[in-house]
Amino acid sequence: MDNIKRVILKLSGEALAKKEGGYNDELIENIANQVKTIVDKGTDVGVVIGGGNYWRGRSNDNIDRTKADQIGMLATIMNCIYVSEIFRSQGLKTNILTPFECGSMTKLFSKDRANKYFEKGMVVFFAGGTGHPYFSTDTGIVLRAIELDADAILLAKAIDGIYDSDPKINPEAKKYDTISINEVVEKKLGVIDMTASVMCMENKMPLMVFGLEEENSIVNALSGKFNGTVVTV
Ligand code: UDP
């Protein structure tokens, strides 16, 4: 796909973590090397990482939703700091931007700053989601992709594409090669959350959904070998 010049890649925090705790360094190094292949070919790559390995914002009698979500946003920053360092160890240049000040740990997001880093060939991590509670990193990635005129969002998932029903439950489940964002919204397919899906629809932001476990899947997403689902707009 030669027309793709800028992508934002979404990684789930849980996918990067080991079941027994800590990070799966081997997997993260593999991701870094795939991203390096894409960056070396001249594509700008932004990265958004979820926080589910540490925390999912949820309220209970003792903790209010806004505070729980703040912890969730901080969890995404910890993930970005770790993964950014692994990327650096693999020879990539990186920077981390957050929508709120984190002292010297990250830099404050602005469109101009992100574009400046992309021009320098850096991978830009967008940590801290939208900076607001009641949102998710799904909405965070769509927001950044739209603001930064990305050509597509790459969603690396535990599953290798979008199915008409859950393949773990229904062995007859059919995988889509392509599906329109309108259909994703109408059928509530839950590829990304509803707020994020509607933002993609209204702003014509396509998605490419594929399995993170599949060998070379990030590189293949930008080549003719793509095996996942394209969400068209
Ligand atoms: N979060 C938030 N605002 C954002 C992005 C994330 O409040 O803009 C919080 C929220 O609590 C969420 C957590 O950070 O549960 C981790 O983000 P992620 O998108 O991974 O959430 P998940 O979908 O795993 O619950």
TrEMBL record:
The metabolic or biological pathway listed in the UniProt record of this protein is: Pyrimidine metabolism; CTP biosynthesis via de novo pathway; UDP from UMP (UMPK route): step 1/1
**Cross-referenced PANTHER family, in alphabetical order?**
URIDYLATE KINASE, URIDYLATE KINASE PUMPKIN, CHLOROPLASTIC
Its recorded name reads Uridylate kinase
Q: How is its activity regulated?
A: Inhibited by UTP.
- Residues at which ATP binds: 10-13, 52, 56, 163, 166
EC number(s) on record?
A: 2.7.4.22
At the top level of its lineage, which domain of life is listed? Bacteria
State the encoding gene.
Answer: pyrH
Q: Which GO terms describe its cellular component?
A: cytoplasm
Family statement drawn from the similarity comment of this UniProt entry: Belongs to the UMP kinase family.
Q: Name one GO molecular function term.
A: UMP kinase activity
Q: What does this protein do?
A: Catalyzes the reversible phosphorylation of UMP to UDP.
Cite the Gene3D superfamilies for this sequence. Answer: Acetylglutamate kinase-like
Q: Which GO terms describe its biological process?
A: 'de novo' CTP biosynthetic process; UDP biosynthetic process
Subcellular location(s): the record lists: Cytoplasm
Name the positions where UMP binds: 51, 69, 130-137
Reaction catalyzed? UMP + ATP = UDP + ADP
Subunit structure as annotated in this protein's UniProt entry: Homohexamer.
Q: Which residues form the Aspartate/glutamate/uridylate kinase domain?
A: 5-210
Q: Taxonomy-wise, where does this protein's organism fall, top ranks first?
A: Bacteria, Bacillati, Bacillota, Clostridia, Lachnospirales
- What InterPro entries does the entry give? AceGlu_kinase-like_sf (IPR036393), Asp/Glu/Uridylate_kinase (IPR001048), Uridylate_kinase (IPR011817), Uridylate_kinase_bac (IPR015963)
Enzyme category, top tier: transferase
The UniProt keywords, alphabetically, are: ATP-binding, Cytoplasm, Kinase, Nucleotide-binding, Pyrimidine biosynthesis, Transferase
